[in-house]
Amino acid sequence: METNVRDFKNQYKKIKYKYIMARPLKHQTDDERITAYKAQQNKYSRKIWECEICACKLQLGNKSNHFRSKKHRKSLRRDDENVFTENVNTF
What we know:
Blueprint: H1 3-21, H2 30-45, E1 48-51, E2 56-59, H3 63-67, H4 70-90
Antiparallel strand pairs: 1-2
């Protein structure tokens, strides 16, 4: 077999494999892809999350803001004091 024919066959196999194994495109344009990504982010951030320390329910998008809030810090201090007094009383 000549090298030209062999090279052509190898290139053809690579091209064929590439098109067969490539994932189908979900979105035709970048705008569609960006809007779908933003929609997925919004959907995730609207899920409900419960703070175990404050016993309040929030959306996941507000979770980091809640950690920095005064309400959370006060509840955290109260829990720390309760844990400390429980440990002292057990001895």
